[in-house]
Amino acid sequence: MGKTARYALPGLMLLLSGCSLVPPLERPEPPVASHWPGAAESGKTDAVGVSWFQLAPDPRLQGLIQTALESNRELRIAVGRVAEARALYGVVGADQLPTLNLGVGQSAARLPADLSGSGKSVINRRLDVNLGVTAFELDFWGRVRSLSEAARASYLATEQAREAFRLSLVADVANAYYTLLEFDERLRLAHDLADNRQRLRDLIQKRRDVGLAGDLDLLTAEGARDAARVQRLDLERNRALAENALNLLVGAPTDQLPPPRRLVDQNLVLDLPIAPPSEVLLNRPDVRAAEQRLIAANANIGAARAAFLPRVGLNLAFGTASRTFSGLFDAGSGAWSFVPNLVQPLFDDGRNQAHFDLAEARKTITVAEYEKSLQQAFREVADLLVARDRLAEQLKAQEALEKSQNQRLALVEARHRAGASHYLEVLDAQREANAATQGVVPLRRALLVTAAQLYKAMGGVD
Q: Do residues 254 and 180 lie in contact, with contact meaning Cβ atoms separated by under 8 Å?
C-alpha cells in the first residue's frame, strides 16, 4: 500500500477541526422586572433541590404522586420523546466521524469474442476484500458539526420539556387530590345540614300536630330539607368527577395507599422563600428548554451558511484483490482507491439562500419565544405570590365569619327550643352558618393548591 493510502485516514482526522460558521449566541436580557411586585425576597430560595415529599407530608398524597410518576401515560409519552430526540442526536452526531466498512465482493463479466483482442470470448472474474470509508464529508466549514450541535440542543430541550411536564404532573396530582378532599368535606357538611333540616322538619310536624304551627310552616321546612338534599346530590356528582380526574392523572389503582387527611391537617409548607427573578426564572425547566431551542436555531444558521461553500467528500478503500479466492492473500495482491470530490454550488435558483433566510427567521421566532417564556414565568410566579398572601388573609377572615355565624346559630337554636324565636330565624341562621363553613373549605383548598403551584413555578424538583 502506498504512502498516500497509508496516511490518508490519519490526515483525514486532522481535517475534522475545521472552522465554524455558527454566529455567537447572544442571549437576550430577561424582559421582566428585577424584583417581584409587592413581595419580599429572601435572596435565595430553599425550595430548589427540596423534595416535594418534604413539603407535603400527607402519606396518601406522596403515594399518589409516586404512582403518577411511574404510571401516568402522558409522562411515558414525554419520556419516549426524550429517547427519540437522543437517538436523533446520535444519528446526526455520527456524521462527524467517518464510517469504516468491511467490504467483501465478487464480480464476473463475459467479454464476447468480437470485442476481445484474442478473438475468443473471455470471462473476467475479480474478488475484493477491503476496508473503506464511503461518502464522508470533510467538515471544513462546520456544517455537520453545526447540525450535530442543533440536534444536541433539541435533545436537551426535549429533556427539559419532560422535566417541566413531570413537575406539572406533581402539581396537578396535588390539585386534584385537594379538590377531592374539598368535595369530601363539603359533602360531610351537606349531610349535616340535611340531617339538621330533617330534624327541624320533624319538630315543626310535632308543633303542627298540637296546633302551634300551620301547614305553611311545615311546607317551608320540607322545602328547606329538600333543597339540602339537592345540594348533597350535586356535590356527590361533582365529587365522582373529581375522583375520576385524579385516577386519570395517577394512572394506576390506589386502593393500597394510606387513608387521606383532611384539608386542615395537610400541614403543607405554605411560606416558601422566594429568590429574585433572575435566579428563579432561569431555574425553571420550561425556560431552560426555550434556551436550548434558541441554541439549536442559532446552530442551524451556521449549517445554512456552510451550504454556500464547497463541500468536500471522500471515498477511501484499501485491501486485497485477486481473480481467485486463494490469490487474495498472495504477495502483491494489495489494492487501494482514493477518490476525493469537491462540489461547489453554482446555481440552485435561490434554494440555499431560502434555507438561510428560513434559519434566520426561525431564530427570530425562537428569540421571541424565549423572551415570552420568561415573561410568562414571571407573571405566573408573581400571580401565585399575590394569591398566596391574599388567600391566607381571606381564609383568616372567613374562619372568623364561620365562628361568629356558628355562635349565632347556637343562640337562635336555643331560643327556638325555648319557644322565644320563630323557626324561620333558625333556617336563616342555619343557612348563614352553612354558607360560612362552606366558604372556608374552598379557601383552604385554594391556599394548598397555590403553594403546590408556586413550588412548581419556582422550578423545584420532585
A: no
- Grid cell digits, residue 286: 420550561
- CA gap 95, 139 in Å, rounded: 10
Who contacts 143 (Cβ-Cβ below 8 Å, separation ≥6)? 21, 137, 302, 303, 306, 307, 311
Q: Which residues of 299-327 are buried (b: 16+ CB within 10 A; e: fewer)?
A: bbbbbbbbbeeebbebebbbbbbbeeeee
Question: Quick check: 1 pLDDT over 70?
Answer: no
| Distant-in-sequence, close-in-space partners of 162: CB < 8 Å, separation ≥ 6 | 75, 78, 79, 81, 82
Domains of the chain, start order:
18-100+138-311+357-457 (1.20.1600.10)
Q: Which residues contact 196 (CB under 8 A, 6 or more apart)?
A: 430
Residue type, 229: R
Cβ atoms of residues 275 and 34 within 8 Å: no
Place of cell 467479454: 111
Amino acid at 223: G
Structure-block grid coordinates of residue 97: 466521524
C-alpha cell at 343: 462540489
List C-alpha distances in Å: 288 to 31, 230, 380, 383, 384.
16, 50, 16, 21, 21
Cell of 427: 333556617
Give 258-289 pLDDT, tens digit per residue: 999 898 888 777 676 777 888 888 888 989 89
pTM of structure? 0.77
Please answer whether residues 221 and 208 qualify as being in contact, where contact means their C-beta atoms are separated by less than 8 angstroms: no
Q: How far, in whole angstroms, is CA 21 from its chain's centroid? A: 33
Distance from C-alpha of 138 to C-alpha of 134, rounded to nearest angstrom: 12
Q: How many CA atoms lie within 13 A of 393 on its CB side?
A: 5
Rounded distance between C-alpha atoms, residue 435 and residue 447, angstroms: 19
- Sign of the CA dihedral running 326, 330, 332, 333: positive
Q: Which helix (H) or strand (E) holds 108?
A: strand 100-111
